[in-house]
Specification:
By secondary structure, the chain is of the alpha+beta class. It has 11 helices and 6 strands. Helix content is 54%, strand content 12%. The longest helix has 19 residues, at 170-188.
């Protein structure tokens, strides 16, 4: 079985602030921009919706309104939060993590630790959505790299030597270089961090 990460460069305070904001304009704009995506999601989860799960648009509405939530369908609110991140943010290039198998994230984290870099890609696969939302029983998983974490990771990378980098497995090094590019992009836009969803 393979997994995937979807990553966004985004103002984390802004997306968290959308939860419970009661922002009807935001809700309508998300509904318009992602109309086809919402229809596809409803088709994909049609059996769950028939059993009582909210549609994707109703889940977006609930997240923006701050509830009410049906705790047994936490996955829909997780995906709704992803739509908010996608609305406000920008996709980050992540071909090294979409798809991936087995313990690839742990392998990359080991490489990061070897270089003395204090972020972890497993954050995106083993975390959960903000605590103000129902916790999905399974997927999506969620994690963040705050702006200050991105800044620290970039500085730690720049302190490494060519010899340290060359000692890593080439595929791991390429994946780490991709991670560092995310931190570099975050630094280029002050106040932004990385929001990541694992599936």
């Amino acid at each position: 079985m393979s997994y995937s990460l979807s990553l966004y460069l985004v103002d984390l305070d802004k997306v968290r602030g959308a939860i419970g904001s009661q922002d009807d304009k935001l809700r309508r704009m998300i509904g318009g921009r992602f109309k086809a995506q919402i229809a596809h999601s409803d088709d994909w989860f049609s059996s769950e919706i028939e059993s009582g799960a909210p549609t994707r648009y109703d889940a977006v509405r609930a997240v923006i309104n701050g509830g009410p939530y049906d705790e047994q369908y936490g996955f829909q609110y997780g995906y709704a939060y992803q739509m908010i991140c996608e609305f406000y943010g920008r996709h980050l290039f992540n071909n090294h993590f979409s798809p991936f198998r087995g313990d690839w994230l742990e392998t990359v984290d080991e490489g990061l630790r070897t270089l003395g870099i204090k972020v972890a890609v497993t954050d995106f696969m083993y975390g959960s959505v903000p605590s103000s939302l129902p916790r999905p029983e399974h997927l999506p998983c969620y994690g963040e790299w705050a702006p200050e974490e991105c800044a620290q990771a970039l500085a730690q990378w720049e302190a490494t030597t060519p010899e340290q980098r060359a000692a890593l497995d080439p595929e791991v090094l390429e994946a780490i270089e991709s991670c560092i590019e995310w931190t570099r992009e975050a630094q280029a836009r002050p106040g932004t961090g990385v929001a990541g969803f694992g599936f």
